[in-house]
Write a structure and sequence with these properties.
Strand order of the largest sheet: 5-7-6-8
Order of helices and strands: EEEEHEHHHHHHHHHHHHEEEH
Distance between the termini: 52 Å
Radius of gyration: 24 Å
Keywords: Nucleus, Ubl conjugation pathway
Structural class: alpha+beta
GO biological process, one term: protein ubiquitination
Number of strands: 8
Subcellular location: Nucleus
Strand content: 5-15%
Protein name: F-box only protein 25
Pathway: Protein modification; protein ubiquitination
Largest sheet: 4 strands, antiparallel
């Protein structure tokens, strides 16, 4: 008698619990095709330039066969497509043992640690964006195909969040600029062999990045109508204390553009001197002294000059943590199955660069 049902040896469907009840977790859904008409408004011709200023044009005539596939792949990369994992942590092992075979990759960790939900937390937003920027610069080709899809899904969510909340668009612009530069080099300069998937998929992704850059360029900041106390109503010493809390020079400059009073406070030499002393060692800024016209040290110019030579200190509201006892990477609020007698003594915060370095072999 033939077996007409599903093979009993298969793992079965994956289910996830939601507010509306249990739903089957599917890798793709027909609903992905909603809201993707923006791509039709841009041209399917992309000009990729290199250092030699020669241009290579990819147009619809060169990839007529892949036109439908490109659109289908774009739909599949919509942010509604998301894999769910029960555990929000991952065991980091770099070699095979009797208990575990193989090793953990960057793409696997990127898929398992739920970065899609992390960007909704304002404490983790800058951390995730910085991590995506580091991946875009040097580790994009090391991601698996599934991890690359997840990468662009998360990137799409970040752009949409910035468009809605208008939160830190400068950071996202830098990320998209680095990502577009990397893709241009990979597609044209390095070759097609280093990219996972059809070349037309990557051209389509590059077009989407150009569209995002245009949207952010046209972003208009909404003026909030508030009849209560505003920033300008605060006394000078409180405004000065706010400026001294910033660790990013560009944030100081941006706030100084709000009112003439804030501009005056943002140009304070002592403020920029404290910022240089916080980020850089004395030996570092002694090598790059920039005197002003009056003979004093221009600490503001010093800060931006030193940025080109030395990395600045990074500050994040929340980061990933690594347990040295269990070799597990996780978000601190979700926890992990630790067997140590005092788990807090084994925890170590993981910076975005440290996250990348954990998976270098």
């Amino acid at each position: 008698m033939p077996f007409l049902g599903q093979d009993w040896r298969s793992p079965g469907w994956r289910w996830v619990k939601t507010e509306d009840g249990w739903k089957r977790c599917e890798p793709f859904s027909p609903a992905l095709e909603d809201g993707n008409n923006q791509l039709n408004d841009i041209s399917h011709t992309v000009i990729i330039t290199g250092d030699d200023e020669n241009e290579e044009v990819y147009n619809t005539e060169d990839c007529e066969f892949a036109a439908k596939k490109r659109k289908k792949d774009h739909f599949r990369n919509n942010t509604d497509s998301q894999c769910f994992y029960r555990e929000k942590w991952i065991y980091v092992h770099k070699e095979s043992t009797k208990e575990r075979h193989g090793y953990c990759t960057l793409g696997e960790a990127f898929n398992r640690l739920d970065f899609s939900s992390a960007i909704q937390d304002i404490r983790r937003f800058n951390y995730v964006v910085k991590l995506l920027q580091l991946i875009a610069k040097s580790q994009l080709t090391s991601l698996s195909g599934a991890a690359q899809k997840n990468y662009f899904n998360i990137l799409d969510k970040i752009v949409q969040k910035v468009m809605e909340d208008q939160y830190n668009p400068r950071l996202i612009k830098d990320l998209l600029q680095d990502l577009s530069s990397t893709l241009c080099i990979l597609i044209r300069g390095v070759g097609k062999s280093v990219l996972v998937g059809n070349i037309n998929i990557w051209i389509c992704r590059l077009e989407t990045i150009l569209l995002w850059q245009q949207q952010l360029k046209n972003l208009q900041m909404n003026k909030q109508v508030n009849n209560g106390l505003t920033l300008s109503d605060l006394p000078l010493h409180m405004l000065n204390n706010i400026l001294y809390r910033f660790s990013d020079g560009w944030d100081i400059i941006t706030l100084g553009q709000v009112t003439p009073t804030l501009y005056m406070l943002s140009e304070d030499r002592q403020l920029w001197k404290k910022l240089c002393q916080y980020h850089f060692a004395e030996k570092q800024f002694c090598r790059h002294l920039i005197p002003s016209e009056k003979g004093h040290i221009d600490w503001k110019l010093m800060y931006f000059a030193l940025q080109k030579y030395y990395p600045i200190k990074e500050q994040y509201g929340d980061t990933l943590h690594f347990c040295r006892h269990c070799s597990i990477l996780f978000w601190k609020d979700t926890g992990h199955p630790c067997t140590a007698s005092d788990p807090n003594t084994c925890l170590m915060p993981v910076s975005p660069q440290h996250f990348i370095d954990l998976f270098k072999f």
